[in-house]
Amino acid sequence: MIKEIRIHGRGGQGGVTAAELIARAAYKEGKWVQAFPYFGAERRGAPVKAFARISDEPILVRSQIYNPDYVIVLDESLLEMANVTEGLKRDGIIIINTRKKPSEIDLAGYKIATVDATGIALELELLVAGLPVVNTAMVGAFARATGEIKIESVVEAIKEEWRGAVGEKNAKAAVLAYERLIKGWKEVKVSYNE
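The chain above was modelled as a monomer; its predicted structure follows.
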């Protein structure tokens, strides 16, 4: 069965890289994958979308994703600008970078998970051009919220993308987000230790 993911972010936040990391982690687990971007106004700060597909069988479809199983929102302000629930399947999950709890998000009728990825990036001093890097944390949050990929695969994919201290810091962000994620539909205490 194909699982489809849509990522909402802003140019420069790493939404495309997040899609690629999800695909790479799933590939490590023996799954078939796709990851691809959709750009409108190609400039830093403009709303952008990226997509990923994960499947146990070859993926033959090549279109944009219109009915995702999961939505990842890298920037909470996009909730006011974009219809992040558009096409989301009834049992789908929305994972949002915010300090708010799921119950504080006005998206009634949807499963919502939240994590303060910005806070994690600031805590780890994970910055590019002075801005917090949230994409790797959100990939860790995705792993916990959905169970589609393992956090160990996420950590491995991140460390392949960035070697040394940068890879370690990004991997730590993913693990912290995995541990700190709040599910709005059921609380489950889990942790990950390397």
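The domain at 3-183 is CATH 3.40.920.10 (Pyruvate-ferredoxin Oxidoreductase; domain 3).
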